[in-house]
Amino acid sequence: MAKKYRKPLKLNLKKGSLTRWIKEKYGAKAFTDRGTIKMEYLRKALRDAPTLTTKRKIQFAINARKWRRR
User: pTM for the complete prediction?
Assistant: First the structure.
């Protein structure tokens, strides 16, 4: 039996929505000089995320950071 194709997650990625939420929650200390979100605060945010959608956005940001290093 062949495996079924799994549909990718459909995220509502409005530009800057995660950045805005993290800036509101943690302030300027969560960002580097270049303006990227520090991994330390992405991990904290993953624990404190209020909704599943926000958790998916954070997990996507963490994964994208890993993909960039490959």
Answer: 0.75
